[in-house]
Structure formats: structure tokens, C-alpha cells
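Render VOC family protein in 3D.
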Amino acid sequence: MKFHRKPITYVNHVAMKVTDLERSLKFYQEIIGFDILERTDRTANLTTDGKTSILSLKQPEDVISKQGRTTGLYHFAILLPKKEDLANIVAHFVENNIRFGSSDHLVSEALYLYDPDGNQMEIYIDRDSSEWDWNGEEVVMAVDPLDFERLLEHRTPNKKWTRLPKDTLIGHIHLHVSELKKTEEFYVKGLGMEVVNRFGGQALFFSYGKYHHHVATNTWNGVGAPAPAPNGVGLESFTLLFDNEKVREQTVYQLKQIDAEVMKEEDDFVTFDPSGNRIKLSV
């Protein structure tokens, strides 16, 4: 978890729009294992440690169902602390007939599933960074089959899954974008990230501090894909947490130098990538 603590900048919160808050809360509590930190009739902040929220849900009054072939969320990723946690949630999914996909990315082991609105999430663990291979400045990743037999050897005997471990974090976010050239400029020159992997000319992986990625972007919904409707199900925003005000001020300056829109919103700054994905800049 060393890539998700200060002084490294990282994604610490994701805000989602849903069509039915009660249905979504049932899923995120009973299936995934979040607790509710606070809620209103149309919003809920979810937590794993009882103190901070890493995921928020909102049901807009005029919400419409998820649209296809747009920019926006590809998936958000929940990072578990230990391998036994991943093994335990696999057993939980199987026992509850939850459909999910999986992959061994070399740097991590991951599960993939959808919430009731079709928003995709990844639940994963990292391999130790000493095991990652680098080809120059690019980390080596793959989409290999996950070895469930070996993974389930780490399952805690007779333990029923009830909630996510308190040290669970948002590990990264993966976005659909409309193109890659301006996207790269925004995340590198604007937000100060490094490109750590170029995947087939259709995806870019960015990070701070040589993580395998804090943000990924792809054009798999088509070059020139439009932004989703503002009231559509999907991503509302994600938050980058900076070490201190000086680092954030420098980032705001960099964003303005490339003519990115930046505005003040309460204690945060807000910006938008070239495809309209909304990003909060927090300290």
C-alpha cells in the first residue's frame, strides 16, 4: 500500500451516479462489504474504516440509465490489503452466485464485476513491487488467467465474508476517453503523472511514484466518443489527494499552462480532462 500514502499523490475517492440508491446500497453492503458512513435520501458515503469515505453514491432526480459508447468510467478499482482477502471474497462470490471475471496482470491479481447499474469495478491485490518487471520506463503487465487453485490456498478457513477490511483503498481508476494525444498532455504536463505503460496504441497507464497505475485511459469505446449525459449513470468524479498545498498549487499552475479548466469548489479545486472526466484536487 506504499503507493497510496503521502507524499505520493493517489486516487482516494470515487463518486458514482446510480438509478436506485436503495438497490445499490444493498449490493455494495451485502455483496461487496462496505459500511455506510452517512447518507441522505439520495446520497450515501461508503466507508471501510468507519472514519473516511472512499466511495460515494448519488441518485440524481432525473437520472437516466447507463449509456453505451461514451467516455467516462471503464472501471474503478478497490485495492485489498492481503491475498487472503482476495481469496475470501472469491469464496463469498461463489457462495452467493455472483458472476465475475478475473485476470493475472503480473503486477496484480484481479477480479471484475458489475454493480446493478452496469458500472464495472475491479477488486484486486498488488504483488510486491520488487516482483514487477520494467522494460525501460514501462512496467510489464499482462492479461493472463488467474490461478484460483493457488489463490484459494490463502482462504481463511470457516470465515464468512461480511465486510471489506478496514485498510481497503481505491487503488486506481480506468477511464474511457475520446483520444489519447491530448489526454497524455493533460495527465503528464497538467497533473504531473508519468506514462508507465502504452497498451497497443489504444490505452495509456499513468502513475505517481512508479506505481503500475493510478489512472488508466483507453479509446475502446471509439476515437471521438462523446461524453455521457450529465444525469446519466456512471462516474460523477474521482479525487486526487496531494501531499500538501504547495504541490497542489503547482499542479493547478501546470493545468492552467495547458489551458485546462480549473475552478475552486469549497476546499478543493476541480478540473476536467479533455474527455470531460471530472477530477477533484484535494489536500
